[in-house]
Amino acid sequence: MGVLRLLVLCTLAACCVARSPPAPPLPNAPFAPLRPLGCNDSEVLAVAGFALQNINRVQKDGYMLTLNRVHDARVHRQEDMGSLFYLMLDVLETGCHVLSRKALKDCGPRIFYETVHGQCKAMFHVNKPRRVLYLPAYNCTLRPVSKRKIHSMCPDCPHPVDLSAPSVLEAATESLAKFNSENPSKQYALVKVTKATTQWVVGPSYFVEYLIKESPCTQSQDSCSLQASDSEPVGLCQGSLIKSPGVPPQRFKKTVTVSCEFFESQDQVPGGENPADTQDAKKLPQKNTAPTSSPSITAPRGSIQHLPEQEEPEDSKGKSPEEPFPVQLDLTTNPQGDTLDVSFLYLEPEEKKLVVLPFPGKEQRSPECPGPEKQRTP
């Protein structure tokens, strides 16, 4: 009986081994987490510089941005695809218009009472062996320094004024008229005012910056500066209109100054091509059949948002402070990541895809972040 029972148990064990289904496969391991980097590391500062260079390059309007400090930096190393950096950058507006295409090293930040500052979030792809530098996405938010802060530091300094104010337009048109009268060989028309401040000197004074374009009209036409044409802006002018008491006292004497800087001619429309530094975009094959999870793009996705000055309410004690520079940048919300087709950067038959993760928050930031400021903002 015991032998029979042992025989039955052995038979059952053999059947279970033979017919047991294979063990379920292990779930795929999640993508490697983002690694925090020091905000003053040489690699991080170099990548931040490339990112801002690309952001400036694709703009068609406004002023170039310069780096004040790296606020946060993470990296995702991706085997043969190189690295994808996630950067949060504190930036300052310079006095160089984006159409000037000047080297960023030649563009300093504005004087403190004209300060415009903010933050950019950027993703930047680096593949050193393949000599690829690429900006897939960015977003920036900028604000001017508040009038209250300017007044507390320098009560008599110029302060910003509405660009559409009649006195601002008067300063722009009269200073441009002066420039045209002193340069009769070619006439220029006003495109738009880009900056304006006011100050009381010996009377009301206005200081303006504005874009100009070539005008088909002649010097004898008084409305030349307001005539429309399809030509692109060719330069940036700085003008001033200072009014001082005249004779009789009810009238003002006007003093007008102007200087204009002309842009170098561009062979291509700014921002119209692929900003990858090491690639000729006109020769790059572009795919348009990629699935939604891996869109094929050449120009970076992003924008620069200008917000009004932020005033601190008098009864703000005990309240949570408002986020000064709200910036969102998410190519995906999938915590496991999605893929981004960057095959056009590599010119190879097989597809090349980057893994893109949600933009990181403040958690697990490097203790070396934020980095040191280059210029203290008011």
SSE diagram, text form:
Elements: H1 2-19, E1 35-36, H2 42-57, E2 63-77, E3 83-97, E4 116-127, E5 132-144, H3 147-153, E6 159-160, H4 166-182, E7 188-200, E8 204-214, E9 235-245, E10 252-262, E11 304-306, E12 338-341, E13 353-356
Parallel strand pairs: 5-11
Antiparallel strand pairs: 1-2, 2-3, 3-4, 4-5, 6-7, 7-8, 8-9, 9-10, 12-13
GO molecular function: cysteine-type endopeptidase inhibitor activity; metalloendopeptidase inhibitor activity
GO biological process, one term: binding of sperm to zona pellucida
Biased composition (Polar residues): 286-297
In short:
One of its GO terms (molecular function) is metalloendopeptidase inhibitor activity. Keywords: Disulfide bond, Fertilization, Glycoprotein, Metalloenzyme inhibitor, Metalloprotease inhibitor, Phosphoprotein, Protease inhibitor, Repeat, Secreted, Signal. By secondary structure, the protein is an alpha+beta fold.
